[in-house]
Amino acid sequence: MGCLAVGIDLGTTNTKVALVSVDATDVRVRAVAAAATPEPSALRDVLTALLRRVLDGEPPPDVVGIASMAETGLPLDRDGGPLGR
């Protein structure tokens, strides 16, 4: 039985999202979307748009993986809002 995975790469310059199907013998990239990494206040909207693009017409993924560089970390306030710019 296969698995549908979403990978998110939040980089300093670019943010990429990929939808990948994985089974015992094959890994297949089904969709990829990318955009310039925005200011923190716009990150949620950019990620949402990229995810919608790769998931358009697809079933929900079984797993999500997120990778980023250390400098892309951003502290959040109690309401989930960015504390930096």
Describe this structure in words.
This protein is α+β, with helices and mostly antiparallel strands and 85 residues long. Helices cover 19% and strands 39% of the residues. It contains one helix and four strands; from the N terminus they run E-E-E-H-E. It has one helix at 40-55, and strands at 3-10, 14-22, 27-36, 63-68. A four-stranded mixed beta sheet has the order 3-2-1-4, with helices on one face. It is elongated and about 45 Å long. The termini are far apart.
Overall pLDDT score: 88
Strand content: 35-45%
| Sequence of secondary-structure elements | EEEHE
- Largest beta-sheet characterization: 4 strands, mixed
Pairing-aware structural class of the strands and helices?
alpha+beta
What percent of residues adopt helix (DSSP H or I)?
10-25%
Poorly predicted regions are none
Strands side by side in the biggest sheet: 3-2-1-4
The termini sit apart by 43 Å
Radius of gyration: 14 Å
Shape: elongated
The helix tally amounts to: 1
Number of strands: 4
